[in-house]
Specification:
74% of the residues lie in helices and 0% in strands. It is built from 9 helices and no strands. The longest helix has 34 residues.
Length: 193
C-alpha cells in the first residue's frame, strides 16, 4: 500500500536553473518585440518623447537613429535601441504608443464621419433632419446655406467636387462634430447613482 503521509515522501529536489529560465526562442521574441516598440517610438514626435519615462541614453539613441542615413546604420541603431529598452520598463512606453495610435484612429474616424455627413447632406434633405436631431446646437441657417452652395457647386461642375462650398460644409461639420464630442462625454458621467 502506498504511503499516505507527507512525512513518508522523499524531500523535493530543487528545479535546475536551466529549466526555470526562458528559452532562447522566447528571449529572441521579446527582443524583437522591444525593437518593434523602438520603431514605434522613433515614429513619435519629439515633443511626446521628452515626456515619456525613459533614460536619457535611450532618448539620445532615438535621436541618433533619426539622423542616421544608411540602411545598415539604421538597422544597427535599432538593435541598440532594443538593447537599451531592456533596461527600461517597456509598459509605460507601450501605453504611450498605443494612446498615440488610438488618437490617430479616432481622428481618421472623425474625418470619415464628416465626409459621410457631407455626402448625405448634399444628397438629401432628410439627412438635414437627422443631423439636426443629432446636433441640436448647430446653426441651422448657416448649415442650410452651406448645403445650398454645395449643391449649386455640384450641379455646375459635377467632376469638380472640391469646390469652396464643399470645403466650407466639411469644415462646418467637423467643427460641430468636435463641439458635440465633449457634450456626449459629459452625458456619460451623469449616470444616476
Amino acid at each position: 500500500m502506498p504511503p499516505t503521509d507527507t512525512e513518508d515522501l522523499p524531500p523535493a529536489t530543487p528545479i535546475p536553473a536551466w529549466l526555470t529560465r526562458s528559452s532562447k526562442t522566447r528571449r529572441k521574441k521579446d527582443s524583437h518585440d522591444l525593437q518593434d516598440l523602438g520603431e514605434a517610438l522613433v515614429a513619435m514626435p519629439d515633443g511626446r518623447l521628452v515626456d515619456l519615462p525613459m533614460d536619457e541614453s535611450l532618448l539620445d539613441a532615438i535621436r541618433q537613429y533619426r539622423v542616421t542615413r544608411t540602411h545598415e546604420g539604421k538597422r544597427r541603431q535599432m538593435q541598440y535601441i532594443g538593447k537599451l529598452m531592456r533596461r527600461n520598463d517597456p509598459e509605460p512606453l507601450r501605453e504611450a504608443v498605443a494612446s498615440m495610435q488610438l488618437g490617430h484612429a479616432k481622428d481618421a474616424l472623425a474625418l470619415h464621419d464628416a465626409e459621410r455627413w457631407r455626402a448625405e447632406l448634399v444628397a438629401s434633405d432628410d439627412a438635414l433632419t437627422t443631423w439636426m436631431a443629432d446636433h441640436p446646437q448647430a446653426d441651422v441657417q448657416q448649415l442650410r446655406s452651406l448645403i445650398r452652395a454645395a449643391r449649386k457647386d455640384a450641379s455646375v461642375a459635377p467632376e469638380q467636387r472640391s469646390g469652396r462650398a464643399f470645403r466650407d460644409l466639411f469644415k462646418f461639420i467637423r467643427q460641430q462634430g468636435t463641439a458635440a464630442e465633449p457634450a456626449h462625454a459629459d452625458d456619460s458621467d451623469d449616470e444616476p447613482a
